[in-house]
Amino acid sequence: MREPYSAVTDEYSLWSCHDIDSTETEVIELLGALVRATKPKICVEVGAHIGLSSFEIGTALARNGRGHLHCFEVLPERARATSERTAGLPVTVHSMADVEYDPTNLPGPVDFLFVDGDLDNRDASLRLWRPWLSANHIVAVHDSLKREQVREALGAVSQYERIDIFTPRGLTLMKLVSSPPAPG
Fold it and tell me: How confident is the model at residue 80 (pLDDT cuts 50, 70, 90)?
């Protein structure tokens, strides 16, 4: 389907999406390209929905020959759909909110973090994962230009360099100015 109306750009009809809740197809492709280019070991996706981004990131990791994606999705039927879509890829789907997960269970720091999902929980996700980011991390936040609560969450996070990519919903790429070492 074509992307529905967006105040972020007048040319919103140039983008497409699977359904109204899915990330724009072009943004999903960009996420996969970032993973291919940066070769992360540990990736985290917050809000897998039906696994379209998860599949793209998992495919990029498989092509890289290294890395693993941990997806978090609170709705069980969507977590199942993501598991089915990513079967055979280096992807683990956690049917839970990321903020309920203990990051010490990961085998190392997070190199690539994609925050989507619940609009009201982005700041909590960013706070949770911040101490677990590797020195060479990339953080991508979806809906960053269209949704007020996401803009507010990003505004509350300090010490990040950021690039706003103008898509109908917005994608912000961020990096901590000085990344602390992961606890433990």
Answer: very high
* Residue 47 placed within a domain: yes
How many Cα atoms occupy the beta-carbon half-sphere of 90 within 13 Å?
18
Q: Is residue 75 situated within a structural domain?
A: yes
d(CA 53, CA 82): 9
User: What's the one-letter identity of residue 65?
Assistant: G
The model's pTM is: 0.87
CATH number at residue 128: 3.40.50.150
Range of the domain at 64: 12-176
Cα torsion 140, 143, 148, 150: sign:
negative
Residue among 83, 91, 81, 85 at smallest CA distance from 60: 91
